[in-house]
Amino acid sequence: MKLGYAGHVRVGLILVLAVEVLSAQGPAPMTRVVVRPVEMRVVPVTLDLVGSVEPNRRSLVASEVQGVVEALPVREGDRLKKDQVLCRLGDTVRRMAVDEAEARLAGLKEQLAEMKAGTRKEELERARAEMEEAKAIADRWTRELERVERLREQGSASLKEYNDTVADTAAARQRLNQARATHDLAVAGPRKEEIARARLAVEASTALLARLKYDLERTVIRAPFNGHVVKRHTEVGEWVGAGGPVVEMIDLETVLVKADVPESAIQAARVGESVSVFVEALGRTFRGHIKHVVPQADVKARTFPVEVELPNDEFVLKSGMFVRARVPAGPTEESLVVHRDAVIQRQGSNLVIAVAPSPMGEGMMAMPVPVVLGAEADNWVAVKAAMLQPGMSVAVKGHERIYGPQPVQPIPEGPAASAPAGGTGTRPAASQPGQ
Questions:
Q1: How far are the Cα atoms of 193, 232, 305, 368, 371 from residue 257, in angstroms, in the given order?
Q2: Residues 6+ apart with CB under 8 A from 363
Q3: What's CA 32's distance to the chain center, in Å?
Q4: Is 48 helix (H, G, I), strand (E, B) or coil?
Q5: Which parts of the chain sit beneath pLDDT 70?
Q6: Which candidate, 397, 371, 367, places its Cα nearest to that of 383?
Q7: Helix (H, G, I), strand (E, B), or coil: what is residue 60?
């Protein structure tokens, strides 16, 4: 495509003035730049919103158990790994309680094992011997009773002798019954109900020991995730109650940009949509995507909270930073676009380097042109600038050191194009794609 008349006039007037200045200064070194044309493409409508950087997670880390703080090895600003020690509480009493519970559990286990094993062989032999002894005594008194009864019939035994013999015989038989019962109990062993009670006692003691060990472990408070300490809520020597705060942590490995989208544009702000975010404090643009769309509006402002997730591998994004987010706001429209590599950022302004024929007929000239950015689609960015028109060339490589009008040698971008001589070969971090 060729430039229209208006485009030639705008660029020509500026370049005429530039050539006059450069002619007065003498010949300038020729800079080689890779160029791509400005195009017209269909891109979505976007909306610029202000917002703030928030951590992906924020946690007020608390103690599960109470105790006195013995150590607090972290300071505000420290970067921690998950499970790194934050705080240690005194644990002497809890260690003694664990030792006591372990000893009690060992005793109960021994009792249960003894019941399961049944009566010992020696006890069985003793019970049998006692039963045999009682049987022998009962037999002797039975024979004695028979003798006394015969004498009684013959009138040779008194009534008292007979009654005493009857009583002694009955007592001997009762002792035999008792010895037999004792022997049978020894043979049968403990009842299953007694074994069940002993087993339940072991289980209860095991649970108690587990709880005491859990409480002992919780005297060491650890980081719940990778993050930074932003506030300490206690000090060494202070008493911390169960549930009391210890430190506050934030996760900045990824961050969330919170912005309020008007209800007129909320239908276009869908989860997963690409969003570019400019951070003024850093002078850089980052690329992320919409992670959350809160379906509850602020009834006064008629806006919906939207969260944009950004990677933060270098931890340059800090919580609370002011940002400007460009979010989808409506249907697509045809716009003037340049390749993303053409856009550079200087002192908070977006620029492209336009390349056009010198009005004096002496090669090609480069000229920085301020632009207003719009929506992004793939590697293309919609721009608005009075001087740009479809078909004009803009530099995409080798243009980082061009700060004013100067002659250049353009190279069309292609597989063979490499970083031109005379340029840096890299783009400033502020304008790298995906930043």
A1: 65, 25, 10, 31, 24
A2: 357, 407, 408, 409
A3: 48
A4: strand
A5: 1-29, 360-361, 377, 414-435
A6: 371
A7: strand
Residue 325 corresponds to which amino acid? A
Overall size of the chain counted in residues: 435
Q: What is the DSSP string of 213-242?
A: HHHHHTTEEE-SSSEEEEEE---TT-EE-T
pTM value is: 0.60
Spell out the alpha helix ranges (H) of 74-222: 92-117, 121-154, 159-188, 192-217
The per-residue pLDDT for range 368-411, each reduced to its tens digit, is 999 988 777 677 888 888 888 898 899 999 888 888 888 888 88
Q: How many C-beta atoms lie closer than 10 Å to residue 24's C-beta? A: 7
pLDDT reported for residue 375: 73
Q: Please measure the distance between the N-terminal and C-terminal CA atoms of the chain and give it in whole angstroms.
A: 32
The helix (H) or strand (E) run that includes residue 8 is helix 5-25
d(CA 262, CA 382): 22
Give the CA dihedral 309, 315, 319, 324, nearest 10 degrees: -60
What does DSSP assign to residue 298? B
